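sry for the spam today, last one i promise. struct tokens for design, 284 residues
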């Protein structure tokens, strides 16, 4: 498994995967964090529900993330250069256009966690038409059979719930209480906090409020951290840094990434203008 990557080079080398019918490619899939890039066009009619959060960043072009907020449908537009953190248990349906590329990060499911793929009777999501609950180890592999089952179902043909709409009890309820924070431009955020992050040893949470995920922007100077039963994805968004792990040094320039494995301690030293986003997603 390649722990170091340059994001720009990696996207260029894998650009053929961002076209139909695949539309995505995993950078990291073997461990606790799932880091992948998605292209388009990719129009989906299903809504995905999971117990973990999802981090989105649009590298090229815009996307629409259809969600149910407070139980009602809403379009979240994530524009080029913007980041967004989707809370757990929010039904969501990504819609992507041609010639776009986005980064998505989510975590591995615990052994007792279930995902849901759900279809609604109409665009207002007024009634569930069809759903399946499953333990999801591989998104591409595990969701395709459910999609095909629905497309060949009587429920899909009639748009009326039937005897096979539900074959198991729901594992949990969707979140109908959380108000979503809007996407925001990452570079503008870094500029607003440049003075604070320019202080040696400084850091700041990228997203306000309480979250499962720990998405920290590391500023100038040295930072010592330790992973427990989770991984950390490092993304050098400005300047340069050096990462020391078990006596080995790894240098990061702008748009380089590095995956720190579970149970590893790491020390990262940023230049004065260095900014590193550290993404960790511990299971709750």
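last one done:
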């Amino acid at each position: 498994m390649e722990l170091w990557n340059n994001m720009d080079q990696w996207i260029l080398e894998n650009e053929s995967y961002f076209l139909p019918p695949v539309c995505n490619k995993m950078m990291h899939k073997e461990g606790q964090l799932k880091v992948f890039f998605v292209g388009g066009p990719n129009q989906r009619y299903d809504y995905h529900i999971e117990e973990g959060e999802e981090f989105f960043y649009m590298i090229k072009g815009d996307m629409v993330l259809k969600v149910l907020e407070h139980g009602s449908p809403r379009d979240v537009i994530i524009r080029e250069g913007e980041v967004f953190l989707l809370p757990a248990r929010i039904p969501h349906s990504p819609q992507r256009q041609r010639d776009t590329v986005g980064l998505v990060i989510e975590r591995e499911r615990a052994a007792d966690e279930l995902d849901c793929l759900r279809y609604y009777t109409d665009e207002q999501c007024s009634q569930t038409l069809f759903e399946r609950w499953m333990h999801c180890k591989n998104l591409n592999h595990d969701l395709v059979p459910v999609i095909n089952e629905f497309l060949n179902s009587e429920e899909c043909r009639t748009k009326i719930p039937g005897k096979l709409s539900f074959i198991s009890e729901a594992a949990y309820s969707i979140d109908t209480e959380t108000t979503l924070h809007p996407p925001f431009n990452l570079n503008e955020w870094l500029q607003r906090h440049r003075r604070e992050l320019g202080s040696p040893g400084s850091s700041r949470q990228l997203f306000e409020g309480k979250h499962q995920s720990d998405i920290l922007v590391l500023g100038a100077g040295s930072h010592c951290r330790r992973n427990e039963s989770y991984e950390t994805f490092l993304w050098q968004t400005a300047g340069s840094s050096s990462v020391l792990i078990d006596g080995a040094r790894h240098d990061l320039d702008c748009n380089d990434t590095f995956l720190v494995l579970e149970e590893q301690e790491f020390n990262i030293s940023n230049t004065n203008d260095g900014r590193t986003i550290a993404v960790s997603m511990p299971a709750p």
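Helices lie at 7-13, 139-151, 154-158, 186-192, 194-197. ok im logging off now
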